């Protein structure tokens, strides 16, 4: 049972153990992952009054231990510094474990957290579709709640976050988590995000995956999102990526669920008009994302000298298509080009990029 402390009522029961919530409703929250998403969630929950510890590798802990996590909101200029606790590993069972790791780092993080996870609700926050599947190999699967977040954030150094837009969060069960466990995570996240409960959360995951497909392009040509997609020819490639991706998802018989801040109709509108018109619509959408230029998740990783999640974004579409026996020439090319940028540390020029796209498709 997830039992209440003094002044609290009983909340619910994830499988695997008992957790005693503290008096007054303060939750013990461990955020695993010193990523843009992880740092933002840790800081916002701390500012909301929760007892927060962020977990990450020792080389990323120094700044947070010295100065906390700084979050700058670009839309209103607000800046906060949160003195969250920072640890290299989990050493106790918290009420909630939030996985905000990069996908490729999740398996090791979940395995390390396993001794302390049985009695905790587990919230996975992701850009793609794989984190809860990875976590479930090491931790109680029926404790897992999936959180699909549309936030845009960048960390130039660990713990120093530029928050371009806060977005919305959809929360739902990944496997067979109890309604009480889902509501526990929903209640926690609703303190800092516009939060919604969603059924068939895998479908929301796929929508989020689709929306992330164009972010590979700024990472290939080394331009911020807004500048990259001001170029209508480059924006046309983004629309074609979306068209290829949505075809794969629909062929896999997954229904695309509208996210709270992005209607399904807006995505389909891009694909129902001539390519040049769809590119103009896409360009306008990206220009309205943020008041300041933003990198997106793929370029952000490259600028920090880290491997990207491309294999779990465009690469996931390629993998699904391969199972179905469908070609994905454009998304396959994007995966290849991002890996070449990772290996060579050199961006492609705009003309090189468009030439390679023309040769492939």
Overall description:
Helix 9 (232-251) crosses helix 11, helix 10 packs antiparallel against helix 11 (275-287) and helix 13 packs across helix 14. The strands form three sheets. The protein has an eight-stranded mixed β-sheet with strand order 7-4-3-8-9-10-13-14, sandwiched between helices. A four-stranded mixed β-sheet has the order 6-5-12-11. A two-stranded parallel sheet has the order 1-2. Strand 9, helix 4 (131-135) and strand 10 (144-149) form a beta-alpha-beta unit. It has 15 helices and 14 strands. The protein has helices at 36-47, 58-67, 106-113, 131-135, 179-189, 201-212, 216-221, 225-230, 232-251, 264-272, 275-287, 296-303, 314-324, 329-344, 350-360, and strands at residues 2-3, 19-20, 28-32, 51-55, 69-73, 79-82, 85-87, 96-99, 121-126, 144-149, 152-157, 160-165, 168-173, 194-197. It folds into two domains: 2-199, 3-Layer(aba) Sandwich (Rossmann fold); 206-360, N-(1-d-carboxylethyl)-l-norvaline Dehydrogenase, domain 2. The protein is of the alpha/beta class.
Layout: helices, strands, pairs:
Elements: E1 2-3, E2 19-20, E3 28-32, H1 36-47, E4 51-55, H2 58-67, E5 69-73, E6 79-82, E7 85-87, E8 96-99, H3 106-113, E9 121-126, H4 131-135, E10 144-149, E11 152-157, E12 160-165, E13 168-173, H5 179-189, E14 194-197, H6 201-212, H7 216-221, H8 225-230, H9 232-251, H10 264-272, H11 275-287, H12 296-303, H13 314-324, H14 329-344, H15 350-360
Parallel strand pairs: 1-2, 3-4, 3-8, 4-7, 5-12, 8-9, 9-10, 13-14
Antiparallel strand pairs: 5-6, 10-13, 11-12
Helix pairs in contact: 9-11, 9-13, 10-11, 13-14
């Amino acid at each position: 049972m997830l039992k209440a402390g003094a002044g609290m009522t009983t909340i619910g029961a994830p499988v695997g153990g008992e957790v005693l919530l503290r008096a007054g409703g303060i939750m013990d929250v461990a955020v695993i992952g010193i990523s843009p998403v992880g740092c933002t969630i840790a800081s916002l929950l701390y500012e909301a009054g929760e007892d927060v510890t962020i977990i990450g590798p020792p080389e990323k802990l120094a700044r947070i231990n010295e100065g906390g996590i700084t979050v700058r909101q670009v839309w209103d200029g607000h800046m906060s510094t949160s003195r969250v606790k920072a640890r290299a590993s989990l050493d106790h069972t918290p009420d909630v474990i939030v996985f905000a790791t990069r996908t490729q780092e999740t398996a090791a993080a979940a395995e390390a957290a396993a001794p302390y996870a049985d009695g905790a609700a587990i919230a996975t926050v992701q850009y793609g579709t794989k984190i809860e599947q990875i976590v479930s190999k090491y931790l109680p699967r029926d404790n897992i709640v999936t959180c699909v977040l549309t936030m845009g954030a960048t960390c130039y150094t660990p713990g120093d976050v530029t928050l371009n837009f806060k977005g919305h969060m959809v929360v739902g069960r990944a496997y067979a988590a109890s309604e009480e466990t889902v509501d526990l995570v929903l209640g926690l996240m609703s303190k800092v995000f516009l939060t919604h409960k969603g059924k068939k959360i895998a479908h929301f995951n796929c929508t989020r995956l689709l929306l992330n497909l164009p972010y590979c392009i700024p990472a290939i040509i080394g331009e911020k999102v807004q500048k990259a997609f001001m170029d209508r020819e480059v924006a046309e490639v983004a629309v074609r990526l979306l068209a290829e991706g949505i075809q794969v998802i629909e062929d896999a018989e997954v229904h695309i669920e509208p996210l709270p801040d992005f209607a399904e109709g807006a995505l389909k509108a891009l694909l129902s008009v001539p390519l040049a018109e769809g590119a103009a619509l896409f360009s306008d959408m990206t220009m309205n994302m943020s008041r300041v230029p933003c990198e997106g998740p793929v370029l952000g990783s490259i600028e920090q000298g880290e491997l990207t999640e491309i294999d779990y974004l465009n690469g996931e579409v390629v993998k699904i298509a391969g199972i179905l026996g469908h070609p994905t020439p454009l998304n396959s090319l994007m995966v290849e080009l991002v890996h070449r940028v990772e290996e060579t540390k050199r961006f492609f020029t705009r003309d090189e990029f468009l030439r390679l796209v023309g040769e492939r498709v």
